[in-house]
Design a protein that fits this description.
The protein is an alpha/beta fold. The chain has a single domain, classed as TIM Barrel. The chain has 13 helices and nine strands. It is globular and about 50 Å long. The chain starts with a helix and ends with a strand. It binds zinc ion. Zinc ion binds next to loops. Its cofactor is Co(2+). One of its GO terms (molecular function) is metal ion binding.
């Protein structure tokens, strides 16, 4: 539970600072609603949803022709910390490190990946990276920071979805999971003129119910096999030092392969990401290159 809350506050830290607000001054939900979202709300999306502006952190469920929820297995919903009550049959990655044959968990070349942007901190990372890499973005951050999203694209990086607002998906209803994914895709359609192919679940929280929904969107699930726990750089308890992280990187360098989980939502994790990049060098791959597949399901330009 502690981990869950910590990541949630790290995620939105960039946003709060930008808005001139203090993290402790208010509940995050109320503040997110006040955001002046920058990506224009497209007309086609108004026709489709009857809405005229981007939603807050609880996006509404809009039924889609190609999503059939009767085909989704009926499995128990669970919250962070409830793993002991979960059957191993659900194949939960966050509880049991269980993976499906279609999940991508590694790469034949040691490669970094970055979650939770686009955020103001992302820009410093973009300036330093000398190779193409993969970013898993939040829809709500995409419509808040479309300029940064475009900078990621201009530099040739691959972008996948990380949901609309970073919910713990196994705790949500099927409809709420669909809403988290469809709105993240629409944010990417409107901002980057493409339909994503790769999806990474927040907190790595995924079981066969979430997988069944994600697959109906045509998305490929991407997890990781090497975790920096870089978010622990900004927590007071369970603290992890930069030296500890860099020692792990040196060990992984010896193996030469693997998929590294990092975060570009906060300045501190980006500082360390840049050092990791200097250590590993530019001989890295994007997720699409790791598995020899295309970058996006579709491009609209
Ligand atoms: Zn995340």
């Amino acid at each position: 539970m502690k981990i869950f809350n910590t990541i949630q506050s790290v995620l939105f830290a960039g946003f709060f600072l930008e808005q001139g607000n203090c993290l402790a001054s208010n509940g995050s939900t109320a503040l997110m609603g006040e955001v002046d979202m920058q990506t224009p709300f497209p007309e086609w999306l108004t026709e489709f949803t009857n809405l005229t502006q981007w939603p807050g952190i609880d996006p509404p469920y809009i039924p889609l022709d190609y999503i059939n929820l009767t085909e989704v297995p009926e499995l128990d919903r669970y919250y962070p910390g409830q793993c002991p009550k979960i059957s191993r049959e659900q194949c939960s990655f966050d509880c049991y490190n269980c993976i499906d044959v279609d999940d991508v968990t590694s790469c034949f070349k040691l490669s970094q990946t970055f979650d939770d942007g686009p955020a103001p901190a992302t820009e410093a990372l973009l300036k330093k990276l000398r190779q193409r890499t993969t970013f898993f973005v939040l829809g709500i951050n995409t419509v808040n920071y479309p300029d940064i999203y475009e900078h990621i694209l201009e530099r040739g990086h691959l972008i996948g979805t990380h949901t609309w607002s970073h919910e713990f998906l196994p705790s949500l209803s099927n409809e709420e999971i669909v809403a988290q994914i469809e709105w993240s895709i629409w944010a990417m359609n409107a901002t980057g003129k493409h339909f994503p192919k790769y999806f990474r679940p927040p907190y790595g929280a995924i079981d066969n119910r979430v997988r069944a929904i994600v697959k109906q969107f045509g998305l490929t699930v991407v997890l990781w096999d090497l975790d920096t726990f870089d978010w622990k750089l900004i927590t007071n308890d369970d603290f992890r030092t930069e030296e500890e992280i860099l020692m792990d990187i040196n060990t992984w360098k010896g193996e030469r392969k693997g998929l590294i989980l990092e975060h570009d939502g906060a300045r501190r994790t980006v500082e360390v990401a840049i050092k990791i990049n200097e250590l590993i060098g530019s001989d890295q791959l994007t997720i699409a290159e790791c598995i020899g597949d295309t970058d996006y399901i579709e491009r609209y330009d």
